[in-house]
Amino acid sequence: MGTEGWCLLLCLALSGAADTAQSFSAVERQWRAVDVVLDCLLVEEGQQRGGFVSKENMVKALLVLKQVPVLDDGSLEGFTNFQLDTMATDNPPVTFEASVNLIQIPHAEALLHADCSGKEVTCEISRYFLQARQEATVEKAAWFITNVQVSGGGPSISMVMKTLRDAENGVILHPTLKLLQGLQGTVQTAVELQVTTRTPSLSFLLGSSASLHCSFSMAPSLDLTSVVWRLQQKGSGQLVYSWTMGQGQVKREGVTLEPEQQLMAGNASLTLPGLTLKDEGTYICQITTSLYQAQQIIQLYVQASPKVQLSLASEALRPTLICNIAGYYPLDVTVTWTREELGGAPVPVSDAFFSSLRQSPAGTYSISSSLTAEPGSAGATYTCQVTHVSLEEPLRASIWVSPPEQRTMPLGVLFASSLFFLVLLYLGLQRRQATSSKLCQDSEAFWAATLLPPSKKKE
Protein backbone atom coordinates (compact mmCIF):
# COMPACT_ATOMS: atom_id res chain seq x y z
CA MET A 1 0.00 0.00 0.00
CA GLY A 2 1.30 3.48 -0.92
CA THR A 3 1.76 6.24 1.59
CA GLU A 4 -1.38 8.16 0.49
CA GLY A 5 -3.61 5.14 1.01
CA TRP A 6 -1.92 4.33 4.29
CA CYS A 7 -2.45 7.88 5.59
CA LEU A 8 -6.09 7.82 4.47
CA LEU A 9 -6.74 4.62 6.37
CA LEU A 10 -4.99 6.06 9.40
CA CYS A 11 -7.17 9.19 9.35
CA LEU A 12 -10.32 7.10 8.93
CA ALA A 13 -9.26 4.94 11.85
CA LEU A 14 -8.58 7.97 14.01
CA SER A 15 -11.89 9.58 13.02
CA GLY A 16 -13.90 6.43 13.63
CA ALA A 17 -12.30 5.92 17.03
CA ALA A 18 -12.88 9.46 18.28
CA ASP A 19 -15.83 8.48 20.46
CA THR A 20 -13.90 5.54 21.84
CA ALA A 21 -10.93 7.76 22.67
CA GLN A 22 -13.07 10.03 24.83
CA SER A 23 -13.89 7.12 27.11
CA PHE A 24 -10.23 6.39 27.84
CA SER A 25 -8.81 7.93 31.01
CA ALA A 26 -5.18 8.91 31.43
CA VAL A 27 -4.63 5.74 33.45
CA GLU A 28 -6.08 3.53 30.71
CA ARG A 29 -3.78 4.92 28.00
CA GLN A 30 -1.12 2.38 27.08
CA TRP A 31 2.00 2.40 24.96
CA ARG A 32 1.71 0.83 21.56
CA ALA A 33 4.36 0.31 18.87
CA VAL A 34 3.32 1.58 15.43
CA ASP A 35 4.97 2.46 12.12
CA VAL A 36 5.28 6.21 11.46
CA VAL A 37 5.47 6.96 7.73
CA LEU A 38 6.68 10.32 6.42
CA ASP A 39 6.83 11.74 2.89
CA CYS A 40 10.34 13.09 2.40
CA LEU A 41 12.73 14.51 -0.16
CA LEU A 42 16.09 12.81 -0.67
CA VAL A 43 18.89 15.26 -1.48
CA GLU A 44 21.28 13.63 -3.93
CA GLU A 45 24.22 15.96 -3.90
CA GLY A 46 25.59 12.66 -2.79
CA GLN A 47 29.22 11.86 -2.98
CA GLN A 48 30.19 15.53 -3.30
CA ARG A 49 30.55 17.20 0.04
CA GLY A 50 29.21 20.71 0.31
CA GLY A 51 27.45 20.68 -3.08
CA PHE A 52 24.55 23.01 -3.82
CA VAL A 53 21.01 21.64 -3.60
CA SER A 54 18.59 22.06 -6.50
CA LYS A 55 15.35 20.47 -7.69
CA GLU A 56 17.31 18.34 -10.12
CA ASN A 57 19.09 16.49 -7.31
CA MET A 58 16.03 15.93 -5.13
CA VAL A 59 13.88 12.81 -5.43
CA LYS A 60 10.83 11.60 -3.57
CA ALA A 61 11.44 9.34 -0.62
CA LEU A 62 9.58 7.61 2.19
CA LEU A 63 10.82 7.29 5.75
CA VAL A 64 9.26 4.49 7.76
CA LEU A 65 10.12 4.70 11.44
CA LYS A 66 9.53 1.11 12.49
CA GLN A 67 7.57 0.28 15.64
CA VAL A 68 7.73 3.64 17.40
CA PRO A 69 6.15 3.58 20.89
CA VAL A 70 3.21 6.02 21.18
CA LEU A 71 0.49 6.47 23.77
CA ASP A 72 -2.74 4.92 22.54
CA ASP A 73 -5.85 6.77 23.73
CA GLY A 74 -8.12 4.37 21.84
CA SER A 75 -7.78 6.07 18.46
CA LEU A 76 -5.35 3.43 17.16
CA GLU A 77 -7.95 0.65 17.24
CA GLY A 78 -7.73 -1.19 13.93
CA PHE A 79 -4.50 0.55 12.95
CA THR A 80 -2.25 -1.56 10.72
CA ASN A 81 1.46 -1.22 10.09
CA PHE A 82 2.89 0.03 6.81
CA GLN A 83 3.12 -2.30 3.84
CA LEU A 84 5.08 -1.28 0.74
CA ASP A 85 3.08 -1.39 -2.48
CA THR A 86 5.60 -2.55 -5.07
CA MET A 87 3.00 -2.37 -7.86
CA ALA A 88 2.00 1.25 -7.21
CA THR A 89 3.96 3.24 -9.81
CA ASP A 90 6.69 2.88 -12.36
CA ASN A 91 8.81 5.37 -10.39
CA PRO A 92 8.45 4.40 -6.71
CA PRO A 93 9.98 6.62 -4.04
CA VAL A 94 13.20 5.65 -2.31
CA THR A 95 12.02 3.98 0.89
CA PHE A 96 14.07 4.01 4.10
CA GLU A 97 13.04 1.63 6.88
CA ALA A 98 14.55 2.93 10.10
CA SER A 99 14.73 0.96 13.33
CA VAL A 100 14.39 3.06 16.51
CA ASN A 101 15.34 0.33 18.96
CA LEU A 102 18.55 2.13 20.00
CA ILE A 103 17.07 5.57 20.73
CA GLN A 104 13.84 7.32 21.74
CA ILE A 105 11.63 9.30 19.34
CA PRO A 106 9.87 12.04 21.34
CA HIS A 107 6.62 13.67 20.16
CA ALA A 108 5.85 10.66 17.95
CA GLU A 109 2.12 11.42 18.30
CA ALA A 110 2.66 14.77 16.53
CA LEU A 111 4.28 12.97 13.59
CA LEU A 112 1.66 10.25 13.50
CA HIS A 113 -1.37 12.56 13.56
CA ALA A 114 0.04 15.48 11.53
CA ASP A 115 -1.80 14.71 8.26
CA CYS A 116 -5.10 14.13 10.02
CA SER A 117 -4.86 17.34 12.08
CA GLY A 118 -4.24 19.53 9.04
CA LYS A 119 -0.55 20.16 9.76
CA GLU A 120 2.30 19.67 7.33
CA VAL A 121 5.45 17.68 7.97
CA THR A 122 8.61 18.76 6.18
CA CYS A 123 11.11 15.90 5.87
CA GLU A 124 14.49 16.03 4.14
CA ILE A 125 17.06 13.23 3.96
CA SER A 126 20.67 13.75 2.92
CA ARG A 127 24.02 12.00 3.19
CA TYR A 128 25.94 12.27 6.45
CA PHE A 129 29.71 12.11 6.25
CA LEU A 130 31.92 11.10 9.15
CA GLN A 131 35.24 12.77 9.77
CA ALA A 132 38.21 11.03 8.11
CA ARG A 133 39.68 9.79 11.36
CA GLN A 134 36.29 8.32 12.35
CA GLU A 135 35.75 6.60 9.01
CA ALA A 136 38.93 4.56 9.57
CA THR A 137 37.59 3.14 12.81
CA VAL A 138 34.18 1.92 11.65
CA GLU A 139 33.04 -0.80 9.29
CA LYS A 140 32.07 0.05 5.73
CA ALA A 141 28.58 1.56 5.81
CA ALA A 142 26.64 4.66 4.76
CA TRP A 143 25.01 7.29 6.91
CA PHE A 144 22.10 9.66 6.38
CA ILE A 145 20.73 12.57 8.37
CA THR A 146 17.01 13.33 8.41
CA ASN A 147 15.49 16.66 9.43
CA VAL A 148 11.77 16.64 10.27
CA GLN A 149 9.69 19.73 11.07
CA VAL A 150 5.97 19.86 11.97
CA SER A 151 4.22 23.08 10.94
CA GLY A 152 2.35 25.35 13.33
CA GLY A 153 5.07 25.49 15.96
CA GLY A 154 5.36 21.72 16.19
CA PRO A 155 8.49 19.77 17.12
CA SER A 156 11.66 19.62 15.04
CA ILE A 157 13.71 16.40 14.98
CA SER A 158 17.13 15.60 13.48
CA MET A 159 18.14 11.94 13.17
CA VAL A 160 21.40 10.29 12.12
CA MET A 161 20.73 6.91 10.45
CA LYS A 162 23.22 4.17 9.68
CA THR A 163 22.66 1.54 6.98
CA LEU A 164 22.49 -2.08 8.10
CA ARG A 165 24.34 -5.01 6.57
CA ASP A 166 22.84 -8.42 7.20
CA ALA A 167 22.04 -11.64 5.42
CA GLU A 168 18.58 -10.49 4.42
CA ASN A 169 19.97 -7.67 2.31
CA GLY A 170 21.75 -10.03 -0.05
CA VAL A 171 23.65 -8.40 -2.87
CA ILE A 172 20.87 -6.31 -4.45
CA LEU A 173 21.87 -2.67 -5.00
CA HIS A 174 19.40 0.15 -4.77
CA PRO A 175 19.21 1.73 -8.28
CA THR A 176 19.46 5.30 -6.96
CA LEU A 177 21.70 5.06 -3.92
CA LYS A 178 23.84 2.11 -5.02
CA LEU A 179 23.41 0.68 -1.54
CA LEU A 180 22.43 -2.79 -0.43
CA GLN A 181 18.67 -3.03 -0.09
CA GLY A 182 16.22 -5.48 1.41
CA LEU A 183 14.10 -7.97 -0.46
CA GLN A 184 11.20 -5.48 -0.59
CA GLY A 185 13.38 -2.82 -2.18
CA THR A 186 13.86 -0.70 0.95
CA VAL A 187 17.07 0.67 2.46
CA GLN A 188 17.46 -0.78 5.94
CA THR A 189 18.81 1.66 8.55
CA ALA A 190 18.98 2.21 12.29
CA VAL A 191 18.65 5.59 14.02
CA GLU A 192 21.67 6.05 16.30
CA LEU A 193 21.28 9.73 17.34
CA GLN A 194 18.37 12.15 17.47
CA VAL A 195 18.27 15.78 18.62
CA THR A 196 14.87 17.42 19.20
CA THR A 197 13.32 20.72 20.13
CA ARG A 198 9.61 21.04 20.78
CA THR A 199 9.76 24.83 20.35
CA PRO A 200 11.57 25.88 17.13
CA SER A 201 10.24 29.44 17.54
CA LEU A 202 9.69 31.33 20.81
CA SER A 203 8.60 34.82 21.88
CA PHE A 204 9.26 36.29 25.33
CA LEU A 205 8.76 39.71 26.88
CA LEU A 206 11.68 41.97 27.66
CA GLY A 207 13.07 41.27 31.15
CA SER A 208 11.48 37.83 31.48
CA SER A 209 13.22 34.44 31.67
CA ALA A 210 13.33 32.13 28.64
CA SER A 211 13.81 28.37 28.53
CA LEU A 212 15.08 26.98 25.21
CA HIS A 213 14.21 23.29 24.90
CA CYS A 214 16.73 20.84 23.44
CA SER A 215 16.82 17.10 24.07
CA PHE A 216 18.65 14.15 22.57
CA SER A 217 18.88 10.37 22.60
CA MET A 218 21.79 8.25 21.41
CA ALA A 219 22.73 4.61 20.95
CA PRO A 220 24.31 2.90 24.00
CA SER A 221 27.59 2.48 22.11
CA LEU A 222 28.05 6.27 21.88
CA ASP A 223 29.48 8.68 24.44
CA LEU A 224 28.39 12.28 24.91
CA THR A 225 31.43 14.54 24.39
CA SER A 226 30.05 18.09 24.21
CA VAL A 227 26.97 20.32 24.30
CA VAL A 228 27.36 23.76 22.74
CA TRP A 229 24.86 26.63 22.51
CA ARG A 230 25.59 29.44 20.03
CA LEU A 231 23.75 32.61 19.08
CA GLN A 232 23.59 33.94 15.52
CA GLN A 233 22.58 37.60 15.51
CA LYS A 234 22.84 40.19 12.73
CA GLY A 235 25.37 38.20 10.74
CA SER A 236 27.73 37.34 13.59
CA GLY A 237 27.96 34.33 15.89
CA GLN A 238 28.90 34.07 19.53
CA LEU A 239 29.26 31.32 22.09
CA VAL A 240 26.58 31.32 24.80
CA TYR A 241 27.38 28.15 26.78
CA SER A 242 29.54 25.08 26.27
CA TRP A 243 29.82 21.82 28.19
CA THR A 244 32.72 19.47 27.43
CA MET A 245 33.36 16.30 29.39
CA GLY A 246 31.89 17.69 32.60
CA GLN A 247 33.32 21.21 32.34
CA GLY A 248 30.94 24.10 31.70
CA GLN A 249 31.89 27.47 30.20
CA VAL A 250 29.45 30.39 30.53
CA LYS A 251 29.70 33.26 28.04
CA ARG A 252 26.38 34.98 28.72
CA GLU A 253 25.86 36.21 32.29
CA GLY A 254 23.28 34.24 34.26
CA VAL A 255 22.73 31.52 31.65
CA THR A 256 22.31 27.98 33.00
CA LEU A 257 22.25 24.51 31.50
CA GLU A 258 20.27 21.66 33.01
CA PRO A 259 22.03 19.88 35.93
CA GLU A 260 24.49 17.21 34.82
CA GLN A 261 22.22 14.33 35.79
CA GLN A 262 19.54 15.78 33.53
CA LEU A 263 22.08 16.41 30.80
CA MET A 264 23.29 12.82 30.84
CA ALA A 265 19.63 11.75 30.62
CA GLY A 266 19.28 13.72 27.39
CA ASN A 267 18.04 17.14 28.53
CA ALA A 268 20.26 19.93 27.17
CA SER A 269 17.78 22.80 27.63
CA LEU A 270 19.13 26.30 28.28
CA THR A 271 17.70 29.03 30.53
CA LEU A 272 18.23 32.75 29.83
CA PRO A 273 17.19 35.07 32.70
CA GLY A 274 16.52 38.81 32.41
CA LEU A 275 16.12 38.98 28.64
CA THR A 276 17.42 42.03 26.80
CA LEU A 277 17.13 42.87 23.11
CA LYS A 278 20.70 41.59 22.68
CA ASP A 279 19.41 38.08 23.46
CA GLU A 280 17.20 38.02 20.37
CA GLY A 281 18.39 35.86 17.50
CA THR A 282 18.90 32.31 16.24
CA TYR A 283 20.14 29.80 18.84
CA ILE A 284 21.90 26.59 17.82
CA CYS A 285 21.90 23.59 20.18
CA GLN A 286 24.72 21.29 19.02
CA ILE A 287 25.12 17.78 20.42
CA THR A 288 28.40 15.96 19.75
CA THR A 289 28.98 12.30 20.52
CA SER A 290 31.99 10.06 20.05
CA LEU A 291 30.91 9.42 16.43
CA TYR A 292 28.15 11.83 15.35
CA GLN A 293 27.07 15.42 15.59
CA ALA A 294 23.56 16.88 15.18
CA GLN A 295 21.87 20.13 16.07
CA GLN A 296 18.62 22.01 16.44
CA ILE A 297 17.89 25.65 15.59
CA ILE A 298 15.62 27.78 17.79
CA GLN A 299 14.49 31.28 16.84
CA LEU A 300 14.06 33.53 19.90
CA TYR A 301 12.10 36.77 19.60
CA VAL A 302 12.17 39.38 22.38
CA GLN A 303 9.19 41.72 22.64
CA ALA A 304 8.30 44.81 24.70
CA SER A 305 4.69 45.93 25.10
CA PRO A 306 3.87 49.59 24.40
CA LYS A 307 2.45 52.06 26.92
CA VAL A 308 -0.24 54.43 25.62
CA GLN A 309 -1.16 57.90 26.92
CA LEU A 310 -3.73 60.24 25.31
CA SER A 311 -3.86 63.93 26.23
CA LEU A 312 -5.46 67.20 25.12
CA ALA A 313 -2.55 69.38 24.06
CA SER A 314 -4.52 72.50 23.07
CA GLU A 315 -8.01 73.81 23.88
CA ALA A 316 -8.31 76.11 20.89
CA LEU A 317 -11.46 76.19 18.77
CA ARG A 318 -10.01 73.11 17.02
CA PRO A 319 -8.26 71.27 19.87
CA THR A 320 -5.18 69.06 19.28
CA LEU A 321 -4.98 65.52 20.70
CA ILE A 322 -1.67 63.72 21.19
CA CYS A 323 -1.37 59.93 21.61
CA ASN A 324 2.04 58.90 22.97
CA ILE A 325 3.13 55.29 22.34
CA ALA A 326 6.28 54.43 24.28
CA GLY A 327 8.63 51.52 25.05
CA TYR A 328 7.67 48.96 22.40
CA TYR A 329 9.68 46.38 20.40
CA PRO A 330 9.83 45.23 17.61
CA LEU A 331 9.40 48.26 15.39
CA ASP A 332 6.08 47.59 13.68
CA VAL A 333 3.11 49.21 15.44
CA THR A 334 -0.33 50.25 14.17
CA VAL A 335 -2.13 53.35 15.49
CA THR A 336 -5.75 54.10 14.56
CA TRP A 337 -8.20 56.82 15.68
CA THR A 338 -11.98 56.73 16.12
CA ARG A 339 -14.56 59.44 16.91
CA GLU A 340 -17.80 58.71 18.74
CA GLU A 341 -20.64 61.14 19.41
CA LEU A 342 -23.04 60.61 22.28
CA GLY A 343 -25.32 57.70 21.40
CA GLY A 344 -23.52 57.01 18.12
CA ALA A 345 -21.13 54.35 16.86
CA PRO A 346 -17.34 54.83 16.62
CA VAL A 347 -16.27 56.20 13.24
CA PRO A 348 -12.68 55.88 11.92
CA VAL A 349 -10.77 59.15 11.70
CA SER A 350 -7.90 59.79 9.31
CA ASP A 351 -5.52 62.74 8.86
CA ALA A 352 -3.44 61.92 11.93
CA PHE A 353 0.18 63.06 11.99
CA PHE A 354 3.13 61.08 13.34
CA SER A 355 6.29 62.29 14.99
CA SER A 356 9.72 61.00 14.12
CA LEU A 357 10.65 57.63 15.59
CA ARG A 358 12.56 57.71 18.88
CA GLN A 359 14.74 54.92 20.30
CA SER A 360 15.76 54.50 23.93
CA PRO A 361 19.20 53.34 25.13
CA ALA A 362 17.62 49.92 25.80
CA GLY A 363 16.60 49.66 22.15
CA THR A 364 12.83 50.10 22.52
CA TYR A 365 10.90 52.53 20.33
CA SER A 366 8.52 55.44 20.94
CA ILE A 367 6.35 57.53 18.63
CA SER A 368 3.56 60.11 18.92
CA SER A 369 0.41 60.51 16.85
CA SER A 370 -1.42 63.87 16.83
CA LEU A 371 -4.91 64.65 15.59
CA THR A 372 -6.96 67.84 15.24
CA ALA A 373 -10.34 67.14 16.85
CA GLU A 374 -13.71 68.35 15.57
CA PRO A 375 -16.06 67.73 18.48
CA GLY A 376 -19.10 69.41 16.89
CA SER A 377 -21.85 71.14 18.81
CA ALA A 378 -22.43 68.28 21.26
CA GLY A 379 -18.84 67.12 21.85
CA ALA A 380 -17.31 63.72 21.02
CA THR A 381 -15.13 60.93 22.44
CA TYR A 382 -11.86 60.30 20.63
CA THR A 383 -10.05 56.94 21.00
CA CYS A 384 -6.46 56.09 20.11
CA GLN A 385 -6.01 52.36 19.48
CA VAL A 386 -2.59 50.68 19.35
CA THR A 387 -1.93 47.22 17.90
CA HIS A 388 1.40 45.43 18.43
CA VAL A 389 2.68 41.87 18.16
CA SER A 390 3.40 41.76 21.91
CA LEU A 391 -0.25 42.44 22.80
CA GLU A 392 -2.96 39.80 23.00
CA GLU A 393 -5.49 42.54 22.21
CA PRO A 394 -5.15 46.21 21.19
CA LEU A 395 -4.58 48.96 23.77
CA ARG A 396 -7.08 51.85 23.80
CA ALA A 397 -7.02 55.30 25.37
CA SER A 398 -10.04 57.64 25.16
CA ILE A 399 -10.73 61.29 25.93
CA TRP A 400 -13.88 63.48 25.84
CA VAL A 401 -13.60 66.70 23.84
CA SER A 402 -16.28 69.26 24.74
CA PRO A 403 -17.84 71.70 22.24
CA PRO A 404 -16.25 75.18 21.82
CA GLU A 405 -18.76 77.10 23.95
CA GLN A 406 -18.16 74.85 26.93
CA ARG A 407 -14.42 75.17 26.58
CA THR A 408 -14.63 79.08 26.55
CA MET A 409 -16.98 79.28 29.56
CA PRO A 410 -14.32 78.64 32.16
CA LEU A 411 -12.26 81.52 30.74
CA GLY A 412 -15.20 83.93 31.20
CA VAL A 413 -15.77 82.73 34.72
CA LEU A 414 -12.08 83.13 35.48
CA PHE A 415 -12.09 86.72 34.12
CA ALA A 416 -15.18 87.70 36.14
CA SER A 417 -13.73 86.14 39.27
CA SER A 418 -10.46 87.98 38.77
CA LEU A 419 -12.24 91.31 38.21
CA PHE A 420 -14.34 90.82 41.35
CA PHE A 421 -11.24 90.05 43.35
CA LEU A 422 -9.49 93.18 42.08
CA VAL A 423 -12.48 95.34 43.04
CA LEU A 424 -12.51 93.89 46.53
CA LEU A 425 -8.78 94.43 46.83
CA TYR A 426 -9.14 98.08 45.71
CA LEU A 427 -11.94 98.78 48.19
CA GLY A 428 -9.98 97.17 50.95
CA LEU A 429 -6.96 99.33 50.23
CA GLN A 430 -9.11 102.47 50.17
CA ARG A 431 -10.65 101.61 53.52
CA ARG A 432 -7.30 100.84 55.03
CA GLN A 433 -5.93 104.16 53.77
CA ALA A 434 -8.83 106.09 55.32
CA THR A 435 -8.40 104.33 58.62
CA SER A 436 -4.67 105.07 58.65
CA SER A 437 -5.30 108.81 58.01
CA LYS A 438 -7.72 109.14 60.95
CA LEU A 439 -5.31 107.34 63.25
CA CYS A 440 -2.53 109.73 62.28
CA GLN A 441 -4.74 112.79 63.08
CA ASP A 442 -5.71 111.42 66.51
CA SER A 443 -2.06 110.65 67.23
CA GLU A 444 -0.95 114.20 66.41
CA ALA A 445 -3.62 115.69 68.69
CA PHE A 446 -2.58 113.40 71.54
CA TRP A 447 1.08 114.27 71.35
CA ALA A 448 0.33 117.96 70.96
CA ALA A 449 -1.68 117.94 74.16
CA THR A 450 0.96 115.98 76.01
CA LEU A 451 4.07 117.90 75.02
CA LEU A 452 2.83 121.52 75.27
CA PRO A 453 4.26 123.58 78.25
CA PRO A 454 1.89 124.42 81.17
CA SER A 455 1.67 128.06 80.16
CA LYS A 456 0.48 127.05 76.78
CA LYS A 457 -1.94 124.57 78.32
CA LYS A 458 -3.53 127.38 80.53
CA GLU A 459 -3.92 129.68 77.63
Automatic annotation (TrEMBL):
It comes from the Eukaryota. Keywords: Cell membrane, Disulfide bond, Endoplasmic reticulum, Golgi apparatus, Immunity, Immunoglobulin domain, Membrane, Microsome, Repeat, Signal, Transmembrane, Transmembrane helix. It is a single-pass type I membrane protein. The keyword Transmembrane helix applies. InterPro entries: Ig-like_dom, Ig-like_dom_sf, Ig-like_fold, Ig/MHC_CS, Ig_C1-set, Ig_sub, Ig_V-set, Immune_Resp_Modulators. Residues 175-299, 306-396 form the Ig-like domain. One of its GO terms (cellular component) is Golgi membrane. It is found in: Cell membrane; Endoplasmic reticulum membrane; Golgi apparatus membrane; Microsome membrane. GO terms for biological process: immune system process. The chain crosses the membrane at residues 409-429. PANTHER family: TAPASIN. This is Tapasin-related protein. The gene is TAPBPL.
